[in-house]
Structure formats: C-alpha cells, structure tokens
Amino acid sequence: MLQPTGLDILARWGLQESAEQLGQRIDGMLGRIAPNGKVVLDINYRVLAKNERDLYGVAIHRASLFHVLYNAVKERDITIITDTRIESCTRDTGSGSSKPMRLIDHNGNTLDPQFDLIVDSSGAQSALAQHSPHYKQSKTLTYGALWTTVKFDAQHFEHNLLEQRYDKASVMVGVLPCGQLPDNDTQLATLFWSVKSNHMSAFRSAGLEAWKESVVRYWPAAHHLLGHIKNLNQLTHASYSHHTLKQPFIPGVIFIGDAAHATSPQLGQGANMALLDAYALAEALKIRQNVEHCGDLYARMRRTHVKLFQAASYSLTPFYQSDSRVLPAIRDTFFEPVSKLPFARKMVTSLGSGLLTSPVKRIDKIAASEKMLQSS
Ligand SMILES: Cc1cc2nc3c(=O)[nH]c(=O)nc-3n(C[C@H](O)[C@H](O)[C@H](O)COP(=O)(O)OP(=O)(O)OC[C@H]3O[C@@H](n4cnc5c(N)ncnc54)[C@H](O)[C@@H]3O)c2cc1C
Q1: Overall CATH class of domain 1-80+116-376
Q2: Residue 256 CA: which ligand 1 atom is closest?
Q3: 272 close to 16: Cβ distance less than 8 angstroms
Q4: Helix 270-287 crosses helix 295-320 at what angle (to 10 degrees)?
Q5: Could you list the pLDDT tens digit for every one of the 376 residues in the chain?
Q6: Which one of 135, 286, 289, 291 has the lowest number of neighbouring Cβ atoms within 10 Å?
Q7: 271 CA to middle of ligand 1, Å?
Q8: Could you say which DSSP state residue 109 is in?
Q9: Beta strand 118-120 with 236-238: parallel, antiparallel or unpaired?
Q10: Contact between residue 309 and residue 267 where contact means Cβ atoms under 8 Å apart
Q11: Listed residue (148, 193, 137, 186) closest to 170, CA to CA
C-alpha cells in the first residue's frame, strides 16, 4: 500500500502518475470478525481530506512499484552492478582529506568503485546495519504471513477497499486489490493469510486443500479467488522482524528504509517510510555540502515519525497477530465504538495513512530553517 505520504514523495519525483496507472486506488480499510461480520477496523481516508484535496492510498504490486522506480533510476544514467551481495564496507586509508568508502562483497572482495557516501537501502537483513554500533538485535515476530497474487474478482470484492477477516488474533485473512503488472493489464489482488513461522512445516504437511477450507470457513467469498491457486508454492511465506537503529548513520554510511527501521506490515507503512527517508536524505544532501555532515540532519528530519510509527506498529501488531486472547477481545469490544468518535476516527485514520506528525511537512520545515540558518 502506498499511503498519501509515499504518494506525496512520488509526486515530488514526478512518479505518482505512473505508479497510479499500474496501481489501484484504495479509499479505505475494513476489518471484520469472522464469521459474525462485526466491523472492528474502519478507516476511510476521506475523514482527513481538507479543502477539496482528495486523499487516498494506492495498492501496487511490488514488481510494478519496482518498475516505476527502476525506470527513474535508468533515466539518470546511474551505473548498476547486479548479482553482488554486500557484506561490509571500508574506508580507504592514506593521506589527504577525502578518504573514499568502498564496498566489500560476500567473498571478501573489495569492489572497485569508490564512494563519498554509502546509502544502505538493503532492507531488514542489512549486513551493514548489523555491523553498526547503533544496531540492537532485531526481534523476530511470532507471526508472519503467506502471500499470493490472484486475479481480482470484481463481482465479490470492492475495487477500492482493503478487507480483512479475523478470528481472535491467531487468524487473519486479507484481500487487497492491487492493480496490474507492468506488462499485463489483468487486474490483480493480493491475498494474505496469517501464519506462525514455526507452524510452516505443519501447514505444508496439511496441504493446499486443508488451507483453502480454512480460508473459506472464515471468509466464504474468498472461494472465488482460490481457484487460481494450484499448489502451495504459489504462496510466499514472509516472516517479520522488528528493529530500529538508534542512529541511522555512521561515518561514511547512511541507512534508509528497512535497513534503518523494519517492522511488521500491519500498518502498511514500510515502503512509504523508505520513500520518506530517501526524500529527507536528498534534501539533507542539498543543504550540507559535505556529505560527512548530512547524517545528523537527515536523522533529525525523520526522527519523530520513525519513532512514533515503529512504536505504534510494535504495540498494535499483537491486536491482529498474536496468541493473546485479551488483546483481540479488547479490539472486538472497543475499537468499533471508539473509532466512531470523530476525534478517535481522525487519529486512527492519521495513523493508518502515515500522516500523523505530518512527516513530509516536517522534512520541508527543517530543510527551510536550515537554509535560513545557512544564509544568515
Ligand atoms: C509481506 C509484506 C507486506 C508488506 N506490505 C506493505 C505495505 O502494504 N505497505 C508498505 O508501505 N510496506 C509494506 N511492507 C514493508 C515494505 O515491503 C518494506 O518496508 C519496504 O520494502 C522497505 O524498502 P527497502 O528499500 O528499505 O528494502 P527492501 O524492499 O527489502 O529492498 C532491499 C533490497 O536490497 C537488496 N539486498 C538485500 N541485502 C543485500 C546485500 N547484502 N547486498 C546487496 N543487496 C542486498 C534486496 O535484494 C532488495 O532488493 C510489507 C512487507 C512485507 C514483508
């Protein structure tokens, strides 16, 4: 899900339109308890729309988002080296003020290119981040999920809605219409099913038909999507981990995206936070001429939003994915009535849309005040 935050960044880079052409506009998220259908999550972006400004999310297949970003990189003539796993980095020794950084691959080879600054965007398992003194062992979450992409069924599902069904916090099934792949206009949906990572072998032994029966028991309409799934290999298992670097930079290296802060995708913010990080870093680099001095500015631009959303994701995920009996009971009893109160509804939507703490405005504000300081 691209949230209004991520879309704002893509718009600044001139990429929003191409992302929207491949993605699917999403106006809200609806979660119901199975099988009685009671609504326990109801988010509609419109609640936050101001001055006629349309507000929405865009669900997009990972390959399509990659396609949009990759094309933008290609247009900039950036050299790309593929098939190389980076393990660590080093700074060239010697005299002179500029001592460039170099990357070291998994065979221990130091690569030829030299860099003023390394930007590590290698995700939640980043080797560089794990070597950072600011890294605290990540926590592997008990629950992950199985994910697959199926043909969208417009007769039984709504185009503009992310829908989920829950039973306590141990069962969650979701359907997210997600647009199309770059080279094929078939409209797709993502189907996901919560699973404990240590239950994967039991899941495989039970087989595909047993899984399909469980899905249909909790959500009969999902039957219309399952026909496309012919074997278990069509389901990708994703496990989730949670970590936040205390400081997203070390001399010569800046961490962005999941390398700096990873979490469960329950709030659907990770890709958006990675885009916000990239934008903040670009702004910091424009202001601080010396790349060695842009880390603290970049970190300041992102600190509040990252802290808040990492904490929110960590504390809210167990309401939807855990073995707890108490948390889903609280969710099922209170979330709906509370979310009907206008203030609470706005808060929940601000959280779900990533807009709480106005992260883009904050980056722009800090950039503007730094520029003023420099010119005075
Ligand atoms: C199942 C699932 C659903 C999600 N749903 C959402 C959602 O709806 N909305 C949302 O905003 N976020 C979502 N997220 C989170 C989102 O995918 C991540 O936050 C986002 O992809 C982070 O982007 P990134 O560029 O930092 O890292 P990644 O997307 O993980 O990219 C890292 C890249 O670095 C490469 N790499 C890794 N290690 C090395 C190495 N050693 N050397 C060289 N290259 C390396 C990888 O191959 C990869 O290409 C979801 C995550 C999962 C797992």
Answers
A1: alpha beta
A2: 26
A3: no
A4: 170
A5: 999 999 999 999 999 999 999 999 999 999 999 988 999 999 999 999 886 678 999 999 999 999 999 999 999 989 999 999 999 999 988 666 678 999 999 999 999 999 999 999 999 999 999 999 999 999 999 999 999 999 999 999 999 999 999 999 999 999 999 999 999 999 999 999 999 999 999 999 999 999 999 999 999 999 999 998 999 999 999 999 999 999 999 999 999 999 999 999 999 999 999 999 999 999 999 999 889 899 999 999 999 999 999 999 999 999 999 999 999 999 999 998 898 899 999 999 999 999 999 999 999 999 999 999 988 8
A6: 289
A7: 7
A8: P
A9: unpaired
A10: yes
A11: 193
Tokens (6 digits) for 358: 């106005």
Q: What are the residue ranges of helices labelled H in the chain?
A: 4-12, 16-22, 62-75, 127-131, 200-206, 208-218, 223-226, 270-287, 295-320, 326-330, 336-339, 342-353, 359-375
Token code pair at residue 172? 């969650």
| Ligand 1 shell residues, CB under 6 Å | 1, 85-86, 121-123, 125, 127, 145, 147, 238, 257-259, 265, 268-272, 274
Cβ–Cβ < 8 Å for 63, 56: no
Looking at the CA of residue 144, tell me the nearest atom of ligand 1. 1
Distance between CA atoms of residues 312 and 358, nearest Å = 15
Examine residue 35 and say whether the peptide bond preceding it is cis (omega within 30 degrees of 0): yes
Name the token pair of 161.
């809605």
**CA 93 to centroid of ligand 1, rounded, Å:** 33
Query: What are the extents of the domains in the chain?
Result: 1-80+116-376
